[in-house]
């Protein structure tokens, strides 16, 4: 149950930062590089989590 809660928390944080990060944290991202970094970090986290979990 704890692992599922962590996944839900991580997904919620990712969606919130991706959708509302500029308003929440005040950064400007006209080229979309911060969003690209968020997506890359999320994907790398999934890959690392799967490798560690084996």
Q: What does the overall shape look like?
A: flat
* Cα-based radius of gyration, to the nearest Å: 13 Å
Helix percent reads over 70%
Q: Which structural class matches the secondary elements? A: mainly alpha
H/E element order = HH
Low-confidence parts, pLDDT < 50 over ≥5 residues? none
Distance between the termini: 18 Å
* Number of DSSP strand runs: 0
Mean pLDDT comes to 88
| Biggest sheet descriptor | none
Strand portion, in percent?
A: under 5%
What is the overall number of helices? Answer: 2
Structure description:
With 54 residues, the protein is an all-alpha fold. It is built from two helices and no strands.
Can I get a quick summary?
This protein is mainly α.
Strands, helices and their partners?
Layout: H1 2-25, H2 33-53
């Amino acid at each position: 149950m704890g692992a599922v809660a962590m996944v839900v928390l991580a997904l919620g944080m990712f969606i919130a930062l991706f959708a509302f990060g500029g308003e929440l944290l005040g950064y400007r991202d006209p080229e979309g590089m911060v969003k690209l970094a968020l997506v890359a970090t999320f994907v790398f986290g999934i890959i690392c989590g799967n490798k560690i979990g084996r």
